Amino acid sequence: MKKNLQQILKNARRVLILTxxxxxxxxxxxxxxxxxxxxxxxxxxxxxxxxxxxxxxxxNLFIKxxxxxxxxxxxxxxxxxxxxCVDASDIERLYGSxxxxxxxxxxxxxxxxxxxxxxxxDTRAASCTLVVYDLLRALKFKLTKTMAENLYLGLVSDxxxxxxxxxxxxxxxxxxxxxxxxxxxxVVYNKLNEQLEHREVSDFAKALKSTTSHCGGKxxxxxxxxxxxxxxxxxxxxxxxxxxAEVAVVLIDKKDYIxxxxxxxxxxxxxxxxxxxxxxxxxKAAAGKIFDATLTEAKKQIVGYFGKYVF
Length: 311
Fold this sequence. Notes:
By secondary structure, the chain is an alpha/beta fold. It has 10 helices and 12 strands. The model has no long low-confidence stretch (mean pLDDT 94).
């Protein structure tokens, strides 16, 4: 694995690092972390992370304001001779790929389609940054403070601040390594979770009122209309606290489709369900899309599917 990566990077001059649309903390942390490793392998590299402009607002506090980051494909000023990606299971989910050849894919999704020339996939990893961390250690490089900040960002994002079912000893051990290098958990938590505007708090309350239960209370669904500014992660993490719910779903009205977010508390594999709706993800957390439907129609589809095939 490490020899293949080193060989791929040996003659590269301009590398573009991609991640999925609507990136989260794990996507951003993995991209920056991998960039640091690449520069250690080949210090002559010009390497930049290309980000979807529609990234989550809280990431603005973590995005580097220099040449290491390009916001929006139209701002890409150089033609890469090598393209790699992180935290993406499908090339269709990549932002800015334009169907170009992907040399390296680093990921942890169970549904990864292995579309790159070199696929470094670990489905047991709680975050993609953990996969990058293993790569760092395989190359026998030391974890730096900057790397630790990116590693921890991915960890807390994908483990729900170490509360999700994917949280394990490996995740805690990596977090300890980060803290030992000076990463402050409280500072990271505040930046990720306590930056809502007043409108977002108000709109959250409106979306919460739309929440209904189905299938004997085992399924709980919330709707987010297009005029509401709501972080669906906060909403779905709150609604799934219903003690009877086994699966929480949030439907978000986008311009061209209805976004579907799913979270499971029990043994149900929502990644398989999301795959039925043009998506994928993890066993406990997944996403998909419903086309040519209103929120009400999409909700009817979801309730019907769960009633017939799940519950």
